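Exercise: predict the structure of this protein bound to aspartyl-adenosine-5'-monophosphate.
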Amino acid sequence: MNRALWKDRVLSSEVLRSEEGRRVKLAGWVHSIRDLGKVVFIILRDRDGMVQLVFSLNTSGRELVEQAKRLGKEYVVMVEGFVKHTEKAPGGAEVHVDRLQVVNEAEVPPHLEPDQRAKVDLDVRLDDRMLDLRRPENYAIFRINHVVLSAARRYLESEGFMEVHTPKLIATATEGGAALFPVAYFDKEAFLAQSPQLYKEQLSAVFERVYEIGPLFRAEESHTNRHLSEYVGIDVEAAFADEEDVMRVLEGMVAFVIREVTERCRKELELLRRELKPLSTPFVRLTYDEAIERLREVGIMIEWGHDLTTEAERALGRMFDGPFFIVDWPTHLKPFYIMPREDDPSRSYSFDLMYGWLEIASGGRRIHRKEQLIARLKEQGLNPDSFKHHLKCYDYGMPPHSGWGLGLARLMMIITGREDIREVVLYPRDRWRLTP
Ligand code: AMO
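Solution:
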């Protein structure tokens, strides 16, 4: 069989839409095999889905039926045959094969066969991630991930944001709390970026509205189901905007993403047994003070000025089904670049976006005056000298600006209903995993 076979192949879904008797060529992987003696049924999987192949004595001949019996799961094959409509086939159509070429054989461990529902531990699956990704459930998750990204880009562009990429090799920390990964950078020490924070702020003084979608690195020592050492962030920064303006962009984007996924990923959501409720904006806004008061009413005591515990987040998640903002956080809980409130500097113009129990984004209004930024750096025990390149920008005309950062995988956990963040990342990196 020659190269031309896969040059004009059709995808599985096209077979299901084809007229009876149409001659088609297909290429893909053997998903499952059912050998009934005189007839062999194979489910072929391609990037588009699955289709049933039939090898029978009548159309295929004895030799081909025997060849089909010797196929194994995940073999790469190319076939040619004609379409037949029948109620008995999944999707209502099948291909009766009269030509078969085995392109490559495969040998997969039985517990990781992609036609089985995942029964084994996630870590075992992650050790053979490429194979694991072939399971239809995973295919659905990452197809949704793609639609989320494409919808986010479309929404942000419609709001006048321009896509940028900032360095991931950096000289200083930006997010106080999270630890950095050091990197040997020629004869110096560099770090992997925890966030594009300072660069996106600087770029807001040039292009006004920028966004970045890219990898971020945090040396998270603790092993939780919602933290990774490497994750994709969607970061936004806007000049001449306050926190309320960028919260509107954030809730608008999340609502748009949910709508797009609902419309464009029906098949995938059905496979994952997910139903997404449409979101109406604006989302609920709760101040930090109101949040700790609501928690006190259910017996969870958070002293003013302390961060919310996981238990507290879970309790709030039960009170607000869906997305809600927590705003006006104590200033000292937020990074140095967040602006303290003018009417009460112990509180700040900041917000976290929660979705149920999970924090999916955080942001706020930024300080745009140099003296105030230097004072805040010092208050947080940071050395302004380490930020001299950034501080210089405040001499060149820094506009008022605001922004936020959202964790893509956190949003994906919500959309797909997965409780472990590693399920929604292709090759997750955490405290214990650096391979594959
Ligand atoms: P923050 O540190 O809150 O804010 O991060 C923003 C969002 O990124 C996600 N996130 C993570 N996701 C997976 N693994 C991690 N280890 C991890 N850490 C954070 C969360 C979080 O809400 N510069 C600010 C944003 C801004 O103000 O613009 C920042 O990085 O969903």
